[in-house]
Amino acid sequence: MTPILANALQFAFQKATTEGKICIATLLVVSIFSWTVIISKARQLMTARKMGRRFFAAYRQTKDPLEIFRQGQEFEGAPAYDLYGTGIEELNYHLEHNPVQVHGQKRISAGSFDTVRVAIERAASNQALALEKGMIILSTAVAGGPFIGLLGTVWGVMETFSGIAIAASASLTAMAPGVAGALIATVTGLFVAIPAMFAYNYMVTTIRAITQELDAFANEFATQMEHRYVDNRPLSEELRDALAGLSPALGASAVREVPAAAGSARVHPAPISPRTVVAA
Fold first, then answer.
1. Domain boundaries in the chain?
2. Phi/psi of residue 230, nearest 5 degrees
3. 119 with 94: CB under 8 angstroms?
4. Secondary structure element (H or E) that encloses residue 254, with its range
5. Does residue 93 contact residue 227 with C-beta atoms inside 8 Å?
6. What is the pLDDT of residues 94-143, one digit of tens each?
């Protein structure tokens, strides 16, 4: 059994001009790239959503941001997991090289946490770019496919009418083959653009949802790390702990005076004697 429209397409392609066949060949190349992106991107997004749901379910069950890392769980393909790995790597670096001891536990300073936050934001941007990679090919196929086909059609119609004018024969039999050969370029352009359009709209919506979810997780992850591993003590407590660590011999009375001195912002000037005023 012959496919639907196979005879018509075969006849039209045979009657197409050289310029029309060049346009059709160009559209076939665009279609190959377009379908390659559609298949690979569909797999990527499917894996990202599936593994992302698993990662978020596991992360919501933990109380410590480092628990998934310590347990060795992996969620390859989830953008949020890659962001999580970047943040944990930066946090562990500062816990090992720039620790702050708070009541016998390791913490990091606010300055070190700024570096961790920047690493998380950079990872979120990189994951968004990775999700959008290749989408320009689909948008080009959607926008350029019909125009390339239209170029081949217009060129073919122009050749047909030029041949009729030269032959001085305006019969339908003389016009039909050339017009059919010209229209196949437009048909090919639509065959390229229509699948790319549906795939592009679906994938853009999916990527936008994953990106927004990723940004929300980045803020949540950074906030939880700040509450758990960042030294947020007030200045008075830091000074009291520092003095207690440097000189235990000062005693409790000297240490108790630190908050009052640190929290006081009023400066009492020394009294001026009348002799000083006369001298001035």
1. 17-160+185-231, 235-262
2. -110, 135
3. no
4. helix 251-263
5. no
6. 988 888 887 778 888 888 889 999 999 999 999 999 999 999 999 999 99
